[in-house]
Amino acid sequence: xxxxxxxxxxxxxxxxxxxxxxxVSVTEKGSYTKQQIISLxxxxxxxxxxxxxxxxxxxxxxxxxxxxxxxxxxxxxDAGSVYPALVYQHGTSDxxxxxxxxxxxxxxxxxxxxxxxxxxxxxxxxxxxxxMGDGRGFQTYVHAATTxxxxxxxxxxxxxxxxxxxxxxxxxxxxxxxxxGGYASMVFHEGMQKKYGASSVTAAAHLSGPYDLYxxxxxxxxxxxxxxxxxxxxxxxxGMNEVxxxxxxxxDFFKPEYISDISSYYNGKIKLSELNTRLIQKLTTNTGASxxxxxxxxxxxxxxxxNPDYWINTVLSKNDAYKWVPESPTRLxxxxxxxxxxxxxxxxARDSMYSRGANPNTLIVxxxxxxxxxxxxxxxxxxxxxxxxxTYQSIxxxxxxVQISGLNVYPNPAQDKIFVDGKxxxxxxxxxxxxxxxxxxxxxxxxxxGINVTSLESGIYIMTxxxxxxxxxxxxxxxxx
Length: 481
Hints:
The chain is an alpha/beta fold.
């Protein structure tokens, strides 16, 4: 998995006459076999080959007017099974068309994660967001309401379309996302819980997101410390302004020497990464360091620092993602050495949610690698997310030979040995801990003798069993000493 995720990291760093939540088009774009996905991610948990589709659907633009948005749908290729749904929210995009629905083209690389989730048995939806992909205008970057509406409308539209097209889902819903996607998954989780109740979300994992816009992220603007991702600042301001037109011209907010580059990005002439490079160079040349606040007109920066009622402060606070209590099993995964999205976002979210009454057994916040930066954090965060979701996943027994049916593991919890009851006599066995490490690996082992687990500490694990035909089953096991 590591080698392909590294290639994805870079992409992380309408129709006015129709009503909302309807499918406009679903176009099959390709397929991957089970073995191709295993080879792509180097992970043996894959059960299915997949098909993927570009979806367009009716929703709203930044101004609340009817629009046609786009997203990616990836489904396991066994139509005889019933699957849970999963929403993956993508990270910061380099350009308007650098989105999941463009999987298979330059810019669509993060859509490959849909292959991974669907290969593990989740019907996977990856929305492009408002103003991205086929959507009108500029993206509403880290804007909670439009993030929720775009995602909810895609989920509603796809759920109404699937039954007539041979795709069956149960009532499970899993939510996750990384970076901007971590923010997006967090606000969507809150939106689903408020609108449909806690039972509408089976489990959620929010990964390295900028949840505290007014606090931690605003400090990157007003601080005099060097920050090497200054393009996030105009990206945020442009996105918020797209919704409510707080200022008419870029000159009203930014210093004149940076207007040309920011305007080129806003108009789609350069990508976000190019804007970031140009801003670092100009800030360093003009001011001696890449300090993000130096992009902003001095009188505006002073308002941001001193006036809590100034529009950008009000907007950032309104769009903070952590001022609620998740009631479904939830994980926040982060890395302490994150150089783009400070890990303190997760700490602020944790402390706020606990102070509001969050159950510490429901909400668990974990540093998955203290030494990993933002790009390096992708692999451990996604690995722990996958294993966490597998402990809750329910798939109706397949009519094809992709899942081993009728297996029961006991005792569970276990101390010394685990036995497997069912038709399977021999199997390859992998037992994973929740950090993604393979703790026990056995090849062609006799299941009648039981599996010795004395080397495992107390805790939750995933046991993967695979037979000679390549069929796989994953079982949650608990070790209790």
